[in-house]
Design goal:
It is built from eight helices and three strands. By secondary structure, the protein is mostly helical. A three-stranded antiparallel sheet has the order 1-2-3. The radius of gyration is 31 Å and the shape is rod-shaped.
Amino acid sequence: MKRFALIVALALLLVPLAARADEAASSVPAKAKMLAARGRAAHDAGNYNEAIAAFTQAYAMAPAPALLFNLAQAYRLQGNCDDAALMYRRFIATNPSPEVRSLAENHLATVERCMHKIALNIPVDGTPASAPGFVASAAPMRSAPASSSVSVALDRPSRKAELEKDIGIGLVIGGSTSLAIATYYAFRAHNASNDVAAAYAKGAKWKDVAPIDARGKSAATRAQLFGVGGALGVAGGVVTYLIGKHSEAPLTVATTGHGVEVGMTWAF
């Protein structure tokens, strides 16, 4: 029983330890979030060179699909059709939601038309043909009036993150079930021990109490096995779930006065 109690206590201790480790990991992308915020501020101010530099650094530290979209937007508004098209394609390849995919594909079609015109030496939006890659009008192409605001949640984690979370939940459920079974067998072992003591107090011989003692030992062994398995299952499930949760990068897309922006939220 003492061993079983220690096993259960170990399982309960591992949960807050894993949570603290997960909280510690939240400090890792702090600079990336700061760079992303700096990029959005530069984008709002129309300083697309600075926005691109900040988004690129943030993506190198924390590669989130939102940054690909923000980079594509900044390149498009800067007039760099080639790089904008590349970023839109990379963003679409991350399998965003249908609404945002449609938005990105519309912008991709626009910058591809821009690339085609430049290749044919055709002026783009009134820009002289001698200025390749430049779009005269820096006004963003909006999917809604500037006065309106549309927000779309992109909280779809990757398949790997979803699988890790599902496995973690399954392990926790299985581990909890094993601990419950271990408790049941520990209770049976305890009762058998009491029955043996009571039988000896009444003057019973060993041959009379041997079956009870054997039943108690068998129950104690099963309690220990289920207890160890349950503790490991719960601890492993918590860690696996937190790893999957850590991998998520919930996103939001919103139309603003400067076009369409994607925001990032790290979840640890």
